[in-house]
């Protein structure tokens, strides 16, 4: 049986998805590094909006905090500090850019198969059921069954930080 | 709840949008007049604006009118579309930020479960606007100002987040409403006459948070990004007329909103200690708090902004390296220790 159709959610999903796809294309076709980075912000913020649509509030906010607020800011910071010019640049594209197409297709296929196979025809419950992926259950999952991977991940990050410091120090 | 039941959804949404406009523009205007025009003048033994309206209270309208009718000037070699978007991104961040502040038991715009986290996330969006404002102006002073601002805002965002963690641990929730309730229903060693405002138990967190707010707002002594003696006006150099007005409103509105958030986190928000009226939890709070709550919030906001402005008018500017060192070597370690202490004490009590 079909659950109640989530009309508003579906329309919003369509609009945001369109913006994200257009943005993704503009990231690779734009002739200016800063413009490309700003289109990437659009895509990442769109992903956050999509998370909100499936009630994943915490994940959506993390997406904004990490990607829009930190990663993209550092990215723009680095680009502006080194080479960003105003106006079009002709040498932005790598010679082997066409290699990216098969990689993208394979990735798309792998993710599509994983998603379709994983969720089959499961549907989101209607909002009236007020399901919420609450923050507490996320933290319970991270700190109980996934504690070891979490530690491993933190350790990898720590190593990266120390490595960066070692590389940056001159003495 | 009474209000929520009598209006249809579209009217509620409209009311919330209007309420958001008021919650952003009213504090901004009040802060500029009371502190920037009057308090600074009194501290410098002068009267400040006196001509427009009684005691110059209409001065702000005159200023806004002046900015609105100015010519819209843009450098010829600027990146025009981005130059136009940049101030809007900064202002949008302010509006997103106010959406999460509760003003009363039912007087809120959104009641996110992870409200504090949301506030910290959207406040970082303004950095993006500042960076691209500096870059798109095609001016070396602007670019330097933008880069300095980004470096500073990234550095001070960390102590701010870490300072909030202490409050979240103590309240056991990230929801702004529940943080307010936890403070007003709390008690200090069995005495509940004052509730338990977290400024007492989280004073280190409060101090770190307010310093970080000062830096996030790029108010002196953290105004290196717009240092007028070396960078003209930093990332705002090329902006004039209404585009500058947007930056200006965003600066003081964000000051107000950050003060509101600080008053929710540390000063008990809209609430009065619940024991005064025999309330026990959210369910008992009377409806009149929806009217009194915003006034209480406004009073607390004015107090905190007074602190911010007092420091702004009193201290000379930090040097760039001092500023970065202060964030990374003082504030972050202090707030980490605060988190550890809070966690230990939370388990003990």
From TrEMBL, chain A:
| Any one Pfam family match given in the protein's UniProt record, by short name | Oxidored_q3
Q: Do the record's keywords include Transferase?
A: no
Say yes or no: keyword Acyltransferase present: no
GO molecular function ontology, one term from the record: NADH dehydrogenase (ubiquinone) activity
Q: Which InterPro entries match?
A: NADH_UbQ/plastoQ_OxRdtase_su6, Nuo/plastoQ_OxRdtase_6_NuoJ
Residue stretches spanning the membrane: 6-25, 37-58, 64-84, 96-119, 146-168
**Assigned keywords, A-Z:** Membrane, Transmembrane, Transmembrane helix
- Name the record gives this protein: Unannotated protein
Q: What species is this protein from?
A: freshwater metagenome
Automatic annotation (TrEMBL), chain B:
Q: What is the membrane topology listed in the Swiss-Prot or TrEMBL record?
A: Multi-pass membrane protein
Per UniProt, the keywords (alphabetical) are: Membrane, Transmembrane, Transmembrane helix
The GO annotation for biological process reads: aerobic respiration
Among its keywords, does the record have Membrane?
yes
A cellular-component GO term for this protein: membrane
Predominant location category: membrane
Q: Where found?
A: Membrane
Asked if the Swiss-Prot or TrEMBL record annotates the protein with the keyword Transport, the reply is no
Transmembrane ranges, per UniProt, are: 14-36, 82-103, 115-135, 147-169, 198-217, 244-271, 291-314, 326-348
What GO MF annotations does this protein's record show?
A: NADH dehydrogenase activity
InterPro entries per the UniProt record, alphabetical: NADH_UbQ_OxRdtase_su1/FPO (IPR001694)
Instruction: Output this protein's name.
Output: Unannotated protein
Which species is the source of this protein? freshwater metagenome
Source organism phylogeny: unclassified sequences, metagenomes, ecological metagenomes
